[in-house]
Amino acid sequence: MFLSILAHHKKNIVIKFDFRRSGQTVSHYVHIVLRAVLSLHTLFLVKPTPVTDDSTDSRWKWFKGCLGALDGAYIDLHVSSCDKPRFRTRKGRISTNVLCACDRNMMFVYVLPGWEDSAADCRVLRNAVLRPNGLKVPKGNYFLGDNGYANSEGFLVPYRGFRYHLKEWGPSTQRPVNNQEHFNMRHTRARNVIERAFGVLKMRFGILRSAAFYPVRTQV
Fold this sequence. Notes:
Elements: H1 2-8, H2 12-19, H3 23-39, H4 41-44, E1 66-76, H5 84-87, E2 95-102, E3 108-116, H6 121-130, E4 142-144, E5 155-156, H7 179-204, H8 216-219
Parallel strand pairs: 1-4, 4-5
Antiparallel strand pairs: 1-2, 2-3
Helix pairs in contact: 2-3
């Protein structure tokens, strides 16, 4: 029942008929499994290893000591009318800003849900770093981030005002014309790992592709 809800984004009433159980039974056991899965979060979140000096990976060998990449994912959700302005995006959608970090193999390292979409990425990251059990970056290591974050200790972002996004480096586009563009091209090719991780996760779990039918507290 739990996996059916996550994978196919089905309502409780649909699960009730699929499994021939009462709505109360469905809700009861879904929440039991949800709490059990959350208690195993330390097993699902991996400890990243930095890029070594002798790395031969064409995407990562330029970033010695890098642990991976991070970014915010926007997940649609249902909230009360009074909370909608806080969670409304620039495009008018109601969603939450979930900060995620992953390693070079698309394995998640850290997840911080619950922030409203109106919050800036740098504010969410600052909150993650300041939390007692938040995102900790060892001295000398760092994560790659986009221009929504600040260039600071533990986080490396691209040059502003220069080409950056992958679509700007296609086969028919001009090659880098200076050191800043060359750095940005290598940066975006490596940082794209977090975008691919989001894509795989949303393709696997339908509940992430549209607003869930659960209260905000349950969703985050």
